[in-house]
Write a structure and sequence with these properties.
Largest sheet: 8 strands, antiparallel, barrel
CATH superfamily: Hypothetical Protein Pfu-838710-001
Radius of gyration: 15 Å
Order of helices and strands: EEEEEHEEEEH
Structural class: mainly beta
Shape: globular
CATH topology: Hypothetical Protein Pfu-838710-001
Helix content: under 10%
Number of strands: 9
Strand content: over 45%
Distance between the termini: 39 Å
CATH architecture: Beta Barrel
Oligomer: single chain
Number of domains: 1
Number of helices: 2
């Protein structure tokens, strides 16, 4: 079984400066319950179907399969409202890789960095542009951002 161990942080947009165009991502959810998430994603010119199990702390099971982009486009049409649009930047920090997502559309203004770990207690360097950890704040799960977009939050 594949396992995802991930920590998530807010990003200081005044310090973080993306390099290049990033990777275009459009994703939607066929199912988004606490027990399981079934996600459809288009990343640049490829399609993916991902199934994630229930979170246990910062860990959960994850299975991802590449599918034809045309299938992903059709599946996005039957997803729960609404589709997440973002640009992803991969940032190397020492021995680690951070995925920094700059959201667009209904979630514009939100920038989140994720790091995948080999174990829950793995140590890693934190760049200056990382802010508060939001790993346990369900509002920042992409599946929840599709239902309750950032633009609707009271700030």
């Amino acid at each position: 079984m594949a396992k995802e161990i991930e920590r998530k942080f807010l990003v200081d947009e005044k310090i973080f400066k993306p390099s290049g165009d990033g990777e275009f991502i459009a994703q939607g959810y066929l199912s988004s319950t606490p027990e399981r998430v079934v996600r459809v994603r288009i990343k640049n010119d490829r399609g993916y179907l991902t199934i994630k199990g229930k979170n246990e702390g910062i860990s959960r099971s994850e299975f991802e399969y590449e599918i034809p982009k045309s299938d992903a486009e059709e599946l996005l049409k039957i997803c729960e409202p609404s589709i997440i649009i973002k640009r992803r930047y991969i940032v190397d920090v020492d021995e680690s890789k951070f995925e920094v997502d700059i959201f667009e559309g209904d979630n514009a203004g939100l920038i989140v960095a994720e790091i995948e770990l080999k174990s829950e207690d793995e140590k890693f360097s934190k760049p200056l542009w990382l802010r508060n950890e939001v790993s346990f704040d369900k509002r920042y799960y992409n599946s929840n951002l599709s239902k309750f977009p950032y633009k609707l939050w009271k700030k």
